[in-house]
């Protein structure tokens, strides 16, 4: 008779009390945009409700361990003395995000996007070929070239000519320059739904993925509201939503400007947003319209999407919404750019980023 056989449930070892509290504290740090005092206050309330600590190890011990382990340090918060996260905590947040968002990622050779094509790269192939003008000197096969010189010119009158030189082939390795755009308009926390924290997690994970697994690639990060400005990786945990409209045009213009400075032939833009463009700048004044799809704003946005297509810069849009009129706009935007678009809930956002990033990495232009 077919049926189910149940085995004994053995819970996984969750580690020490400090380890459990540290995971919660790191999650709360993202929600509070790096405010240590607020995160500790929330953690204290959770401890009171769920009894995470005991008589032998309390919150005071946890705070002291955070200091001793170099996760937080004394500093100024809004002009008042307090605690701030250290660089060690920032690295830990990125690594945690990488594990959470890209947990299915398999280990590969560090920093390489090897292909089957011969060309400039760091991994040597077994084949040799005659030297050609423009080949790098460090790829010359010295022993084989000297042997050719002896054979061609004799031992008594040694000379080395370009015809004697042979070059060690290397495998072509693709490199990509990426700009990640993050929407920090007010709609990212509208109606009580926190959309900025998952967006930050994806950005943290992507930055850790590129800097550790693909160190020869480049990643620029920018945020956009009424305007757009560039931020550094270390700023990601501290991102906050502002009272902004969504100036997608400003974000795309800055992204294109950043990519123009990159020499890699492969360039791409990732844009994480939850709504339509509602703002553009005309001269020194802002033109804003939050109601529906404004034709003036949409036209400017679509024109930039087309311009990116002509510059061979694909845009992958991750829309955290499924309203019909928003889907229609993203379809127009994606068609104008010949890019990609994903409509996802917050839980599926990271997996979509990972899958599309790998596809772009394997594409050779």
Tally of strands = 13
The helix content, as a percent range, equals 25-40%
Largest beta sheet: strand ordering: 8-7-6-9-12-13
Residues in β-strands, percent: 15-25%
The biggest beta sheet, please?
A: 6 strands, mixed
Mean pLDDT value: 84
Q: What ranges have pLDDT less than 50 throughout 5 or more consecutive residues? A: 116-122
Q: Give the radius of gyration.
A: 27 Å
Structure classification: alpha/beta
Tell me the count of domains.
3
CATH topology of the largest domain: Rossmann fold
> CATH H level of the largest domain: which superfamily?
von Willebrand factor, type A domain
Broad CATH class of the largest domain? Alpha Beta
Figure out the total of helices: 10
In whole angstroms, the N-to-C terminal distance is 58 Å
Outline the fold blueprint.
Blueprint: H1 17-31, H2 36-50, H3 59-68, E1 72-77, E2 80-85, H4 87-101, E3 114-118, E4 124-130, H5 142-153, E5 166-173, E6 176-183, H6 196-213, E7 218-224, E8 228-231, H7 248-260, E9 266-273, E10 279-282, E11 285-288, H8 295-310, E12 315-319, H9 324-337, E13 340-343, H10 349-362
Helix pairs in contact: 1-2, 4-6, 6-10, 7-8, 8-9
């Amino acid at each position: 008779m077919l049926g189910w056989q149940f085995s004994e449930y053995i819970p996984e070892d969750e580690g020490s009390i400090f380890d459990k509290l540290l995971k919660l504290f790191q999650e709360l740090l993202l929600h509070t945009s790096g405010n240590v005092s607020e995160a500790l206050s929330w953690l204290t309330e959770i401890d009171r409700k769920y009894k995470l600590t005991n008589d032998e190890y309390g919150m005071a011990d946890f705070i002291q361990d955070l200091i001793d382990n170099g996760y937080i340090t004394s500093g100024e918060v809004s002009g008042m003395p307090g605690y701030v996260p250290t660089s060690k905590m920032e690295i830990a947040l990125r690594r945690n995000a990488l594990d959470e968002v890209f947990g299915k990622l398999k280990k590969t050779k560090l920093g390489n996007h090897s292909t089957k094509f011969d060309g400039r790269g760091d991994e040597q192939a077994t084949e040799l070929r005659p030297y050609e003008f423009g080949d790098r000197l460090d790829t010359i096969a010295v022993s084989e070239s000297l042997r050719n010189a002896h054979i061609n010119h004799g031992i008594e009158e040694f000379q080395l000519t370009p015809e004697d030189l042979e070059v060690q082939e290397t495998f072509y390795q693709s490199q990509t320059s990426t700009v990640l755009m993050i929407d920090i308009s007010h709609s990212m926390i509208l109606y009580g739904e926190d959309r900025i924290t998952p967006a930050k997690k994806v950005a943290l994970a992507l930055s850790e993925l590129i800097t550790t697994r693909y160190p020869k690639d480049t990643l620029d990060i920018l945020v956009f509201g009424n305007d757009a400005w560039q931020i550094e990786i270390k700023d990601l945990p501290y991102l906050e939503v502002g009272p902004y409209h969504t100036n997608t045009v400003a974000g795309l213009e800055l992204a294109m400007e950043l990519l123009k400075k990159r020499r890699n032939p492969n360039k791409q833009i990732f844009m994480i947003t939850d709504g339509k463009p509602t703002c553009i700048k005309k001269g020194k004044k802002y033109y804003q319209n939050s109601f529906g799809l404004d034709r003036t704003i949409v036209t400017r946005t679509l024109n930039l999407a087309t311009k990116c297509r002509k510059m061979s810069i694909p845009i992958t849009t991750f829309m955290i919404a499924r309203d019909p009129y928003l889907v229609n706009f993203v379809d127009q935007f994606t068609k104008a750019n010949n890019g990609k678009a994903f409509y996802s809930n917050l839980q599926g956002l990271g997996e979509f980023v990972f899958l599309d990033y790998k596809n772009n990495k394997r594409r050779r232009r």
